Amino acid sequence: MNKIFSFFLTIILLASCSQYQKALKSDDVAVKTEAANKMYEDGKYTKAIRLYEQVAPAYKGKPQAERLFYMYSKSLYNTKQYYLAGYQFENFAASYPKSEKREEASFLAAECFYKLSPVYSLDQTDTEKALEKVQKFIDVYPNSEYLPKANVYVKELREKQEKKAFEIAKQYNSISDFKAALKAFDNFIADFPGTPYKEQALYYRLDSAYQLAINSIESKKQERLDYAKTTYANLMKFKSDTEYKEKADKMLAVIEQELQQFSK
Predict the structure, then answer these.
(1) Residue 203 burial (CB < 10 Å; 0-12/13-18/19+)?
(2) Which ranges carry the Outer membrane lipoprotein BamD-like domain (predicted)?
(3) Long-range contacts made by residues 54-63, C-beta under 8 angstroms, separation at least 24?
(4) Which of 72, 92, 103, 190 has the smallest number of CB atoms closer than 10 Å to its CB?
(5) In this structure, which topology does domain 79-175 adopt according to CATH?
């Protein structure tokens, strides 16, 4: 029985391959289109893409183009060619504003950019672009069935930006570029007020302010010590029992001692 099944399966596969090869070599647009649609329906998206690319120019401006370009875009999406798929879906949505597939195409375009967003440690240009695209979709389709997914994507993309900004600020502190660290932590705390990294950010801002003040030239030392003292107060105000309290208290003791010279 298994041998019979295998035999028929082989025949079907050979017939499918034969149809595809004939379509590739054919000059008949209709033959190519029929084969492309068959490949698409069978989940053979790579083969469908090759055929759709051959017939696409012949369909531009024609009524059949809408369905063809939708299936072509979905084939790119299903083969994870997200740059091309995102472009094609955006083009589809712009070209067919009255299409029943427009909302789906707009969402899938945004989703393609989301999928192109790299891990937080890499350059986040694509993350910013993805956030812009997904937010635009939400604004245009506030009642969309895809809204829950879109909201999840926005949350994940923003968390990635947040993590990146925090790690950059922390890196400035670790390489002793304390001026840059202070600016970066100030921006981070302002941009992400509800961040789960706030306690750490406040501590590292204190550490940066402390290091900058202690190693400062005399003409700027008092001002910087006062600022460091303020950053200590900000940390304590946010969380008086912070895990960094022992370290922070030691810094404050040094700051107070250093400030005594300016009170004489």
Answers:
(1) buried
(2) 34-221
(3) 54/24, 55/29, 58/29, 59/29, 59/33
(4) 190
(5) 1.25.40
